[in-house]
């Protein structure tokens, strides 16, 4: 392998000269995708292919379920290709779980094969129910016509050219039994290419209200309690192209029960040129419909907002500024390092657009003349210096400084953070002032533009406590399934830049200065905030530079290493198995790295297989 590297570099240089940067980058990305798809194909063969023996296990399993709910699979059909229509129906007929009905509404297709296939299939299978609309309407109207046929307790949504995994309804039936109060269930998904090969899996997070405003991760496979579907009026006309998204927004808002993520790939989405692809006009209309749906749903909650483009067909919610912004108390711990602190203060004082910002420097025994002179200058600009003497204990230093804060929101900020753009703090506060949110984190970049903080996931790394997601991702990267572009719920964010309502900070007891003096104190705080019923949000729309650990260094040896090991042990004792199952880090993703990669084997087993799989 090492012998080949010079040749590869020469090839790359030649491509750059002859094809240019854009074409070369596209080729590299294409090759990486092909490699990922090959790896996924191997994973599917090993861990996600149902054989005859396992099908028998599933039949025994579902026969023993306490409840056997009936699923009405709702499918609007219009001018579906012959092969695609036959394969869609075949995937339903192949369901190992047999309590289903297939409710199809044809929206006045002109192609004769559509009616012929549907009628032949219905004659052969009494669980297939048909209605033929006399005039072409649209996909929303056709979906409602199919919904009218439904008699099951739950409705599953299936596009007319897509495929259900043979165990899809079996796993959903198990989920219904495990969560009898739930109205909404959704699964992971992948895509089918023109040859029927599976690729492009999306291993989704558990329920994230904020992420739903950025992308529709509920559909594929989305399952809804039928009574809820009818309560909210089914599909709304005028949202064609995003009718499922609009439905998901309204249903999740109306549901009183938990919204359950089923972390198995149960839906295969046929996505290639010529298979249900949108024209540019249709795509524009679909995006407009999605953004109208998001805006209207927010309005029903009393939230006035605009919905814009987050890139790559995703969405960004921009909430209307309040009449009066709450006071923010920024707490910046430091010990000397005047140059670093000065850059941080310049960003807060001169390049941050926020009307009521209190700045508190928590001074941990600074003694250099430059630092003391800087403190004097900053005091003249209204910055408060709070003395926090003694051995370095990040938790104690911040807790002491927080007792001096007068703001409604406390912003914990490392002294090696520098401001990039002025609106970052308003973005964070727009979340932190919401009553259900207990902590907000920002997107932090290294000075070279690569990613330092895109959120924190539990269980990552050799110590299996927590680690940063997408660490080192290049400037502008969209991240896994667009996640670096979108505000979202997470379990934890770093306290290098974290906004917390002062009342919430007091309620949970602040940082743990007894057990977590240096490491994982922010992870522990976020977990206690979540335990108290609040949500933790990460937003990519507040971007700052982080010159990580310049003020303290990163060496772990001797007493520092022993202290780190004690803190790891405490976190494992305090939080236990919670660290092994982050709800926002899918169990089909590896814990070896924060760059989302598939876990082989998966860290979750199918419900009919005894005992958990311990993937990495």
Secondary structure blueprint with pairings:
Elements: H1 5-47, H2 52-63, E1 71-77, H3 82-93, E2 100-106, H4 112-124, E3 128-132, H5 139-148, E4 154-157, E5 163-164, H6 168-178, E6 184-192, E7 198-202, H7 209-212, E8 222-225, H8 226-231, H9 243-254, E9 259-270, H10 280-300, E10 305-311, E11 314-319, E12 328-334, H11 338-350, E13 357-363, H12 369-379, E14 384-387, H13 394-402, E15 409-413, E16 417-419, H14 424-432, E17 437-445, E18 451-453, E19 456-458, E20 466-468, E21 488-490, E22 497-501, H15 502-507, H16 521-531, E23 535-546, H17 558-575
Parallel strand pairs: 1-2, 1-4, 2-3, 6-9, 12-13, 12-15, 13-14, 17-23
Antiparallel strand pairs: 4-8, 5-9, 6-7, 6-8, 10-11, 15-22, 16-23, 17-18, 17-22, 19-20, 21-23
Helix pairs in contact: 3-4, 9-10, 11-12
């Amino acid at each position: 392998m090492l012998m080949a590297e010079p040749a590869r570099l020469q090839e790359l240089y030649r491509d750059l000269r002859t094809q240019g940067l854009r074409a070369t980058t596209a080729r590299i990305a294409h090759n990486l995708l092909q490699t990922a798809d090959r790896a996924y194909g191997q994973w599917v063969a090993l861990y996600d292919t149902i054989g005859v023996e396992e099908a028998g296990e599933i039949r025994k399993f579902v026969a023993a379920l306490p409840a056997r709910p009936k699923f009405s699979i709702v499918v609007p059909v219009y001018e579906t290709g012959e092969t695609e229509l036959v394969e869609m129906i075949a995937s339903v007929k192949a369901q190992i779980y047999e309590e289903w009905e297939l409710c199809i509404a044809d929206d006045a297709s002109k192609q004769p094969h559509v009616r012929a296939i549907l009628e032949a299939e219905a004659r052969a299978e009494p669980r297939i129910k048909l209605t033929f609309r006399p005039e072409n309407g649209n996909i929303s109207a056709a979906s409602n016509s199919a919904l009218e046929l439904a008699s099951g307790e739950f409705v599953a949504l299936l596009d007319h050219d897509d495929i259900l995994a043979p165990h899809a309804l079996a796993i959903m039936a198990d989920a219904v039994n495990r969560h009898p109060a739930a109205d909404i269930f959704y699964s992971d998904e992948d895509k089918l290419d023109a040859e029927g090969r599976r690729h492009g899996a999306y291993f989704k997070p558990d329920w994230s209200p904020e992420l739903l405003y950025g992308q529709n991760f509920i559909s594929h496979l989305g399952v809804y309690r039928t009574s809820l579907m009818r309560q909210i009026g089914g599909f709304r006309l005028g949202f064609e192209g995003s009718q499922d998204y609009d439905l998901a927004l309204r249903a999740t808002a109306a549901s009183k029960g938990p919204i359950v993520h089923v972390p198995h790939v149960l839906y295969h989405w046929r996505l290639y040129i010529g298979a249900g692809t949108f024209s540019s006009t249709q795509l524009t209309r679909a995006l407009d419909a999605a953004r109208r749906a998001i805006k209207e749903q927010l309005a029903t909650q009393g939230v006035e907002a605009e919905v814009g483009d987050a890139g790559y067909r995703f969405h960004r919610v921009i909430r209307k500024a309040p009449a009066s912004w709450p006071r923010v108390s920024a707490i910046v711990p430091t010990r000397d390092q005047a140059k670093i602190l000065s850059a941080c203060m310049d960003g807060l004082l001169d390049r941050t657009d926020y009307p009521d910002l209190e700045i508190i420097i928590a001074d941990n025994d600074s003694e250099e003349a430059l630092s003391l002179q800087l403190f004097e200058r900053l005091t003249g600009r209204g910055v408060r210096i709070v003395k926090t003497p003694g051995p370095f204990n990040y938790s104690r230093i911040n807790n002491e400084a927080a007792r001096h804060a007068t703001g409604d929101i406390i912003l914990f900020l490392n002294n090696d953070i520098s401001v990039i753009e002025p609106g970052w703090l308003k973005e964070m506060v727009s979340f932190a002032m919401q009553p259900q949110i207990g902590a907000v984190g920002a997107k932090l970049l290294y000075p070279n533009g690569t990613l330092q903080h895109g959120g924190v996931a539990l269980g990552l790394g050799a110590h299996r406590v927590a680690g940063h997601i997408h660490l080192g991702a290049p400037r502008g990267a969209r991240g896994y399934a667009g996640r670096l572009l979108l505000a979202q719920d997470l379990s934890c964010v770093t306290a290098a830049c974290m906004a917390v309502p002062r009342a919430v900070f007091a309620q949970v007891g602040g940082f743990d200065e007894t057990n977590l003096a240096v490491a994982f104190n922010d992870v522990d705080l976020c977990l206690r905030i979540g335990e108290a019923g609040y949500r933790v949000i990460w937003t990519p729309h507040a971007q700052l530079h982080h010159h990580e650990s310049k003020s303290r260094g990163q060496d772990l040896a001797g007493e520092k290493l022993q202290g780190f090991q004690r803190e790891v042990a405490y976190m494992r004792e305090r939080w236990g198995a919670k660290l092994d199952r982050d709800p926002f880090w899918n169990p089909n993703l590896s814990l070896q790295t924060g760059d989302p990669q598939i876990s082989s084997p998966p860290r979750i087993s199918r419900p009919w297989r005894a005992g958990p799989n311990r993937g990495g």
